[in-house]
Amino acid sequence: MADRTVMHIDMNSFFASVEQAANPHLKGKPLVVTGSRQRTVILTASYEARAFGIKTGMLLHEAKRLCPGVILVPADNRKYTYTSTRIMEIMLDYTPLVEVFSIDEAWLDVTGSLALFGSAENIAYTIKSRIKHRFDITCSIGIAPNKLLAKLASEMKKPDGLTIIIPAEVSRILERMPIGELCGIGRKTARHLLLMGIRTCGELGRCDEERLVRKFGIIGTRLKQMGKGVDVSPVIPAEDADEVKSVGHSMTLKRDITGRHDIVRYLLQLSERVGRRARRYGVAGKTVHLTIRYADFTTFGRQATLPMHVNKSGDIYRGVLAILDSLDIEQPIRLLGVRITNLCYQREQLPLFEDERKRAFVVSAMDVVNDRFGDFTVTFGSLLGNNDEKGSHVISPAWQPEGIRNVQVM
Q1: Catalytic residue among 19, 48, 99, 105
Q2: pLDDT tens, 202-252?
Q3: Do 195 and 315 belong together in one domain?
Q4: Which single residue of 37, 52, 176, 186 has CA 20 to 30 Å from 383?
Q5: What is the domain count for the chain?
Q6: Is there a catalytic annotation at residue 105?
Q7: Among the three residues 203, 227, 251, which one is the final residue of a domain in this structure?
Q8: Which residues contact 373 (CB under 8 A, 6 or more apart)?
């Protein structure tokens, strides 16, 4: 892992930038992308909107209070996933070692590409130029000896920045850097470190390792290394990534619901999304999970283990329905989620009994039609007339251009 050159590429205000590129009238204006016009938080704010104090995750009414003239644009997930996929293809022109961190971020290990392209700086400027020319959007790039520092570097100059951290400068840069700036140190961990009197990365790197281990367990050793800017983790391309441990989908509803009839309709819809994606990639789960978020944002989940692994939508649905029937719903529901875990990869086999064979053929035919013409082109009769709410308008941060995490969006 010595003498590596790692690059982190972070698209600037990605969703908002894509919308401004698609509609020039939006350029230079305070714009926020929302999952729904009424029920979800701000997904991305343009830099013009950020100047008013608007941030990702903020509620719509808060954004409107800060900037009454802010422009609301509903998310176009298909547009964003298409653009992200094409951008990742550009990155692959310079190294096969591309690790997608989220829909708008990726690490590249360009160590083996330097002889061909001259320098990491040349590669960075070329990628920035190609993205700008093709999509009219910008990115910030960090170059460093490892993933941790490359991610830190990409945050230093935004938008459209390029920052290079060389090994000789690591100690100086980290000495006064707040611990919360490091990727992997969340608010809870940062709060515990502050209570220990540790405010900067320099202080974290000098902290006694045994003290950290007593407080955080084996993670304490990792925290000390992070404070020193040490990170030996490799850049892992998608084909070498760990197997996915769950398949799930959730949706924030346009209105709070209370009646069982409405709840089960959404659960069937979510079960179909989960089942279809599981079938596409040849996995089945033995444990089903139901997640519920009430109107007051109280969130909880329940799970149940089934007698066998399943990936047919009806089987998943019956599993979550059994969980629902064991609960007392105390408030109107704002969000529902369905997930399967305890996965196994399996090859499709023709069922032994005729009824099961018919069910399998029907499911397969539905998948073929929906893969070609779009989600819910063919669906369950009880879902007819519910076309205005086909799922979440928010892309999961775990989204990737290929594989199980590649949720097909409309």
Answers
A1: 105
A2: 999 999 999 999 999 989 999 999 999 999 999 988 776 666 788 888 888
A3: no
A4: 37
A5: 3
A6: yes
A7: 227
A8: none
